[in-house]
């Protein structure tokens, strides 16, 4: 009989579990629904708490910006609005508007030049009137942090008016006409990374008065909005470029400096009374350009050069960096900038042709970093700068960072007289296998640059407390928190004598465990607050007062995990007397919610709410007690809710995915079992809607480390980057089981087997799993475990492994190309969990490598190994494929060209999602085999045919070991349409 060819997707619901059998009124999720699922993004509250902005965006297509008047319970929508913000006085909302998705796509199809592409427009919305004005072709905008009166926006090149008056040349800027309305669709993306010199418009929002400045390349508001600083490019010898300031009170423009080729890195102090920048007279085409640091004050109205190659304090043969970020101290008396050693200049060899020049990398055992890491870090090293400071009061430059101590950090306000220097220079040779990495730490005097060694050979990261009184760090070597007074030289161990663990109690890797994180410091460095697994502790950084559990051990007693949630992002410390909001998780039920407590007051934490949901993105209006938050479950998308700080009468605001009610969805529950070693384990079981325990369902098993705590996470239907989309398969009648895994050092594969298999067996014993139709799927570390499991058991009918390591002996000596690091650390100390070198534990490397047991594989295996994978070498997939192919085992390998570890391009994600569905539907539901599985896709038709057609035959002929497959050319692929 001639095969009947069906389009991919028509039989996605084939088998015993059709939509009609479950619920006639609802539809099954298929791959063509992805774009109908939307996400809520970029939500923000106005400072007065009256208004809420948020965008609802599809996975592909045009989004909608929503403005909600919370007081009036009303709202407006703006198609394609994004990058939205409220002014600080809550009077205006500003946002950009994209061009339509279709318009941009058509322009790309026509291969339009960047300047011809559709551009963004800008919307200025008066919240009191509800009316908006639109400005066409705007590439960016800025608002001052502490003023609601002013807006500056930068126009695209083609909108610049040649006849426009250059107001920066006049004492008083000439007002320009107010912007006229433009259609919202006249919007789009910028024209590339290089900043073009185009028109800048400054708008006084209350009056609509505008001031225009031509040839602007960069601009900056002072925090208070009292000045707008901007850089102009030179037009000719008469119209020189320079740095200018517009005073928003006097409405006057003032030149600060001019005549140089380049100005960049503008930074203002918080009062807008000082400005710093770097500048160069050298042409942009010069190989080595010399920059100078300039400083301007409103008091003397002069931009002075304060640092250069020849200035006092600059190390010999060093220079000012153009790449370092500049910054004033909070008091405004210090300016921090970057320097670097003058690089060696090489003259071009004009006696050789390019074809005669040798290109090679020389690897030596003396290299501090291996060549791949050097090459990966090349651009960063070329732009590396070393922190220096200029004391503006005593007019003195001090170099803080050096080649020996390259990394220097300041306290948050930058006011402290001491900085922290760190260096791993003495330990670079061990990078790649010794983890956590080691470093030495110094205390550096900001006034004179003198330094003293504070901590030698630590695996922690010592930092400076907010007030600059202490060094503090978690020390992995002994799993304790430590401090050191900057005036002393002896560390104080704050947690050694406490009878609780401050390290990860669930750590199952052969490496030193991480900590549970830091809550923060209180004012003036009085207390350091740290977390254990459950509770929050108050520690005296001097080590004199006894440690206090501020949550009174209530978390540990009740299986609750408390974590401080700051509602004021401007706060650098934890308030001592105010009520603290604690994000809370029940580690047993996975319910979440909020409690309150105090730093110094006694008493147990007080519950606000605990619900079977996950809570994320909690934010408070600056000048109101209104909160916005999101909560979700497997059945409910994480929409926006508003309430007050007591969480009374919460109100749901957004409804991003009402279409979900039209589809079969399902449910999730927490299940438990014991490993083969008797250890209690948890996992998630997803069931189809209208689940009937008397029926038997095919089951997919997906795993990666631990996932039980994601019980209440929402999972949207979306094309897969590497793993199964759970709601899609559940809607189509599959059970999906996600088991947690615990590990023993040296036996990662065996540990996975002893965790996963008894979990599967415990579900089979319940009677509703079709044990003859089960499959497994995993990606990366999960992909390795899939490859391992199919060498140990035949209980699964099919398996899909994404980016699997198949041969630990060859992978051990490889490189993680995304970072350039050796892979050795991963096998010895982290996720692969062998716990020793290849020559110390050769048999464990072999026993945990699926490749060496390929003859035992009886399960059809589909793999993905992409040729630009920077985490797992794609040859690991090739090794497994070639072994199984040689043994005539059913195996397929998908290689997405140019793709990374997880698929990045949406077209490839869609393709993988369809192929995984076809693969599992074929083996677990008896659906027809697709062409790509049956006959492959020859390279002759690559990019023209994809083999996604399903071929229905009288009987499904599943390949069996020992059976010779039919030649790939038995049916010419060209006949399949």
UniProtKB/TrEMBL annotation:
This is S9 family peptidase. Keywords: Signal. It comes from Rufibacter sediminis. PANTHER family: DIPEPTIDYL PEPTIDASE 9, PROTEASE FAMILY S9B,C DIPEPTIDYL-PEPTIDASE IV-RELATED. SUPFAM superfamilies: alpha/beta-Hydrolases, DPP6 N-terminal domain-like. The keyword Signal applies. Transmembrane segments: none annotated. Residues 164-196, 955-977 are annotated as: Disordered. It comes from the Bacteria. Residues 1-21 form the signal peptide. The lineage of its organism: Bacteria, Pseudomonadati, Bacteroidota, Cytophagia, Cytophagales. Residues 749-926 form the Peptidase S9 prolyl oligopeptidase catalytic domain. Pfam families: Peptidase_S9 (PF00326). Residues 170-188 have a biased composition (Low complexity).
